[in-house]
# Entry
Amino acid sequence: MKKNILGTSAVTQIGILVRDIEKAAQVYADLLGVDKPEIRTTDGPEKSQARFKGKPTAARAKLAFFDIGPSLQLELIQPDGERSTWREDLSRAGEGVHHIAFQIKGMKEKIEALGAEGLPLLQTGEYAGGRYAYLDGSKDLKVTIELLEND
Amino acid sequence: MKKNILGTSAVTQIGILVRDIEKAAQVYADLLGVDKPEIRTTDGPEKSQARFKGKPTAARAKLAFFDIGPSLQLELIQPDGERSTWREDLSRAGEGVHHIAFQIKGMKEKIEALGAEGLPLLQTGEYAGGRYAYLDGSKDLKVTIELLEND
# Structure
């Protein structure tokens, strides 16, 4: 692999797929000694412009975030039934870690460069203030990678 | 779950099971823009005193560590064929994330308290300057938890 494509070595998020986010968020809140965070739902397709494996998707997910380090978050993800990397992994492999995330600059270039190194693009979408992309790192990295770009 | 059993909310390590640590370490070094780290092998059973599911085990693993944040490490783990949580998960689920780790104080009390909350003890061992324990968090946390206690 080409050296330093990401431009960072800092992981900023660990994403975990769950079937019941209310229950999982309460357990993690207790374990970490914090209040249960607000559970948010990702935007609908008009706003998110979500695409999965090359096609638009109406997939949404419920999310809960915990601070688990100076610049690290744990993200719980409960996907709906629509096509997404979340739904696919939950159906195939069950609950568990889905991705690790990096904050990057230059989303398009990073996706292309990593694609050329054998990390196919799985899913993209927009959120308030930025955008995300999931790349299939299962072959070489053994985990899905999320790129996050904030404006 | 009882509140704040761990005494910390900081995850300090993400552990990933791999079949070929030389190859995986090179890929991660390239991705993260750093030199390939030295690959270490865990101590043998005399030193490690490793126990898996209540019985001594001769299991060892090759390890490679990367700094991926101000107080966060990525750990690649290539287990040998002996009985361990590493070997069991690699054989059952394949390569991928194995655990997230917390630095704690009071190993015995933490193991007991988490056990009472439905996180069974999987494996323990000693290393130079400290000790570890893996707890089965698959039911509620959806991931294996490692406790690390340094002297």
